[in-house]
Amino acid sequence: MFDRLTGTQQAPPWWLVGIAAAVALAAVAHGPTWRLARNVVTIAHEGGHALVALLTGRKLDGIKLHSDTSGVTVSRGKPHGPGMVFTAMAGYVTPPLLGLLFAALLAGGRITLMLWFSLLLLAGMLVMIRNAYGALSVIITGAVVFAVSWFGGSTVQAVFGYLAAWFLLLAGTRPVVELQRMRTRRMAPSSDADQLAHLTGVPGLFWVTVFALVALLSLVAGGALLFPDAATTHV
Fold first, then answer.
1. Which of 40, 77, 114, 167 is the most exposed place for a label (fewest CB within 10 A)?
2. What are phi and psi of 129, to 5 degrees?
3. Do residues 66 and 133 make contact, with C-beta atoms less than 8 angstroms apart?
4. How many CB atoms neighbour CB 7 within 10 A?
């Protein structure tokens, strides 16, 4: 197992990488599929809040994930200052940045490491979940990743890893669009962007733009990592 974690694995053919990207795009674009797949984005979103809260010295009380794909992370500490700002910023930028990290690992052939790193993150998050639906969501997600990493062959693992990376990269922008749509309709007065506006005095639209730029730049950089390496290896 140590050799598999520290070693490299061969990337799938470039056309399988393309199929994984197409499937991920379909999951983001298709409404009914997105409503289910968005739970994965919510796990990453709330996990980002939780991780940054801990890194900035805040005390994490717990995380709740809801069936409508919303979530909440509760931490204690100063109600203002850099720690609170970075914690509020982390949610929307975490899914695309996590996708970019996965893309970098996959580009380096670290497929098994990427899968087990995902399991480590999910296990750490499960400890802080404070409701049944949230626990079930994390357990099911972790079970799927574990089954692929333990029982799947090298090609199955590779395709799954590329699919996960593409999904997080492509899924980074849709929640931001949904956020701004809700803000325009005054349906999200306590959104992350509006909390940041309150904390910093900078308009919420600025923070929505920051979220969108991070998502788009991550997608461009992640796509550049995923496609050329696979194509070069197998041409």
1. 77
2. -70, 140
3. yes
4. 12
Instruction: Report the pLDDT value the prediction gives residue 76, as an integer from 0 to 100.
Output: 92
- How many Å separate Cα 64 from the centre of its chain? 16
Distance CA 5, CA 111 (A): 8
pTM over 0.85: yes
Cβ neighbours around 150 below 10 Å, total:
12
Residue 190 phi, psi dihedral angles, 5° rounding: -115, 30
- 170, two tokens: 């492509």
In angstroms, the Cα distances linking 193 to 85, 176, 190 are 10, 10, 8
State the pLDDT confidence band at 1, using cuts at 50, 70 and 90. Answer: low
| SS3 state of residue 235 | coil
Cβ neighbours around 94 below 10 Å, total: 24
Neighbours of 157 (CB within 10 A): 21
Please, how many CA atoms are within 13 Å of residue 163, restricted to the half-sphere of its CB? 17
At 190 the pLDDT is: 87
| Sign of the torsion angle spanned by Cα atoms 226, 174, 23, 19 | negative
Cβ atoms of 215 and 178 within 8 Å: the answer is: no
What are the φ and ψ backbone dihedral angles of 76, each rounded to 5 degrees?
Answer: -115, 150
User: At CA 199, angle to CA 194 and CA 203, rounded to 5?
Assistant: 45
User: Is pLDDT at 48 greater than 50 in this prediction?
Assistant: yes
Helix axes 14-29, 204-234, angle to 10 degrees: 150
* DSSP state string for 151-212: HS-HHHHHHHHHHHHHHHHHHTTHHHHHHHHHHHTT--TT-HHHHHHHHHSS-HHHHHHHHH
